[in-house]
Amino acid sequence: MLAYFLSQQSFLGNSIIIDGKIIKPLPHIPGAETSGVVEEVGLHVTSLKRGDRVIVYPKVFDGTCDMCLNQCEMLCRNAGREDVGVITNGGFAQYMAVPEKNAFKIPDEMQWELAASLPVTTLTPYHALKEAALKINEFLVIFGASGNTGMMATQFGKKMGAKVIAVSKDNWIKDFGANYIISEYDRVAEKVNELTQGKMADVVLNSLGVQTWENSFASVGLNGRWVTFGGLTGADVKLNIQSLYSKQVKLIGSTGGTRKEITELIDMSKELKARVWKKFTLDEAYLCFQPSSYTSKSP
């Protein structure tokens, strides 16, 4: 995610624009996925106390617009659908201050690796699959299944009772709930056809963008749903409208998730796991942005 944002970086005068958003303030502290321990609370805070372990809901919202009142805080009209760590300083620091409504208490036994993954990596695919209304015994195809959001989507697909087809070259994704793995990227639709005996997928999750668009759309079956929350390899695709309406395919855009869904994830956290490639100290955080950091991944 961070590497993607950097690839979309540009400059305008004294401003930095990332993913189409002006970064504030400057100098800037990034970090959208944050967990930690409460150090101090404000005078009117009632739900948290010093020493509580928390995660931070990363959306900026005012709680007064129709979207917020409908429990869609990530679509807040007045806050412009902005993120903590983008238009505010983020979590790459020893301390950060957030409103009480953004902080959620987590169990003492929850590992920090999973806790830090909940606000974005876990919440995003969870919300997307709920938007797609994934049902038991349906076929779910996940592109980028061994990525951060992909491994979480795989777990949710399994929990929701779907038959999960992971598009990945990594066999370890089976440990996260994948029923099948497709490793031949240029033959995905063909393999989906074989695995589903011609039915094709009920739901296709593709957050990778233009490079996987044709294969992913071709993998959707009759009355199926194609859902996305990202465009890692590009956002502009060509769509044959006839193939859309003739198969009655639904295209679904999804972004972030709700505060209620954060509480649902905390409740089910004992059933979730995160795969960590490498850990960095806070002083080493800048290394996460260096391409050389990704050249020697451990198995």
Give a written overview of the molecule.
This protein is of the alpha/beta class and 299 residues long. The protein has 8 helices and 12 strands. α3 crosses α4 and α3 crosses α8. The two termini are 20 Å apart. The model is unreliable at 1-13 (pLDDT under 50).
Radius of gyration: 20 Å
CATH superfamily of the largest domain: Medium-chain alcohol dehydrogenases, catalytic domain
Number of helices: 8
Overall pLDDT level: 90
Number of domains: 2
CATH topology (level 3) name of the largest domain = Quinone Oxidoreductase, Chain A, domain 1
User: SSE order, as H and E?
Assistant: HEEEEEHEHEHEEHEHEHEH
Structural class: alpha/beta
Q: Terminal Cα separation, in Å? A: 20 Å
Strand order of the largest sheet: 9-8-7-10-11-12
Q: Percent of residues in beta strands? A: 15-25%
Helix content: 10-25%
Return the CATH architecture of the largest domain.
Alpha-Beta Complex
Which regions have little confidence, pLDDT < 50, spanning 5+ residues? 1-13
Q: Count the strands?
A: 12
